């Protein structure tokens, strides 16, 4: 059966309109749910993140004190100045220059476009938003937790380096052209460039929108929102359950922090007596 080009163009245009409406609904749903998570769980997530960082520092301090007591201060000075392969690299020790960021594709480009006149987001606010989206303690499966941990490593590196463009890309925010120095651009000359036909442009846009829909749908926090909706139909408040879990984790982390502090104080006291 013969189909005219006009018929194909109209059909694809209708598909594009439907896909763009679906993408807009997904983005709206995501922003609404992220606001709910922030309101109900944000305080516990912040406390847990701070306690995790503090206990990591205390563990490192306690390790250093014990090694110094074992090997002596002079030998430890030598060790501290020498390369120590095998230890994980600390985030706060990484230089801001020359960091290589993992290419992240889980957030679609231009999901939240920024026009030239729109002020750029505050880097701390944007980091907080991404930390909510990928917080491992909100993951509902082992696979999602692995993805969240990988993304958080990239987010933390970008934040530690003060790289706002990288964080914006991770959040799906398009950059003003004068800031988009991290993306390669194709060189197009007037002699070789050809205007794309309307049908091809529409098809390309449709594929891009469908890709964005697929990527958004696979975000761990979107999956969590579906679990919350399912639990509501079952008469459960999943966010309340998560809040209780986070409170329990915070309490355990406080106990761990206090124990580490007491161990450090005891080790320092023995060192002075010795």
Give a structural overview.
The protein is an all-alpha fold. It has a domain of 115 residues. Helix content is 67%, strand content 0%. The radius of gyration is 25 Å and the shape is elongated. The chain starts with a helix and ends with a helix.
Index terms:
single chain; 274 residues; mainly alpha; 8 helices
Secondary structure layout:
Blueprint: H1 5-71, H2 73-81, H3 123-133, H4 142-160, H5 164-170, H6 198-217, H7 220-233, H8 238-273
Helix pairs in contact: 1-2, 1-6, 1-8, 3-4, 3-5
Approximate shape:
elongated
Return Rg in Å: 25 Å
* SSE string: HHHHHHHH
Low-confidence stretches: 87-116, 176-195
- How many angstroms separate the termini? 94 Å
Specify the helix fraction band.
55-70%
- Output mean pLDDT: 77
- Tally the beta strands: 0
Note the main sheet: none
What is shown here, in short?
With 274 residues, the protein is mainly α.
